[in-house]
Predict the 3D structure of the following.
Amino acid sequence: MAVAGMALLLAGAAPAAAQPGQDREAEAAEAGEGEAGAGRTQGRRLHRYPLEAGVDIVGEAQTARASAEETLLDVAARYAVGYEQIRMANPEVDTWLPGVGTAVRIPSRYILPDAPREGVVINLAEMRLYHYPEDEAVVEVFPVSIGRRDWSTPPGETRITAKIEDPAWYPPASIREEAAERGESLPQRVPPGPDNPLGRYAMPLEISGYLIHGTNRPWGIGMRSTHGCIRLHPHDIAHLFDEVAVGTQVVIVDQPFKAGWGEDGLLYLQAFPTFGGETPPRRERLAMAVEAVSAALGDRDHRVDGSRLRAAVGRQDGRIRRISRPGAAPVEAARRAE
């Protein structure tokens, strides 16, 4: 690709900016306030799990213990989970002072999105990226930051068109104007280096102006805070950059409700907050959940507990909940895999 064309493409990426109405803790996390080590990654986990035919749930239940020096963001960085997800999983834990020995629930069990299990799949609702390595029956899961409400990331199917190490960033006029309104000044070109918001790696997509890239501010990974691009932690993007090839399919979906089969042959639901404005009415959210369940059921005969389904819709906290009725006969793996 010509240098001029690449420069134009990279103009669509943008640094973090606090979303209007975002709470103080989120703003502080994105700005890197609090403990200086909040982006630490020593021993950062790689969430890589085998895929089994007819099983839609991967991952494992984990609990961490906070040390005296750690914030909740440090724990999230160590276990490679996102900011919003770890807060949602631990609503009673203080973000900045969890307390020595405090048990921190790690949200590291996932129902796979309803999408082809190949290439890269990004679910905006849960702010996670799923990578299915070619010729391997495994999935790798990463937290991501996505576009905020006024710069939303568009769903759809696209592809990676290039891989750029140490990219330069060319902020477009609209982003420079936005920065000026905040009393900041942005140059027309930001060279590679520690001040570059793209980090060390960038992978442009076919969708003009959108990239999968790293960051120089890892504290807020797992937030709706970008100008539309998909942002990963520096360690995660370095791994993904080595694993994917130019031309890899990228499917971006928005699925706040995911239904899937467990190893036990029972049906489960995972619900996340909806995004994109006001929360839809309960009836509308229930319809979305029923649609996800219907897709998972297909033509299989299985008893679903309506009260459990409604309870999961009411919470939307990212936890995986069984929605099969008590005593429902498990569906055999061969039947689930059809």
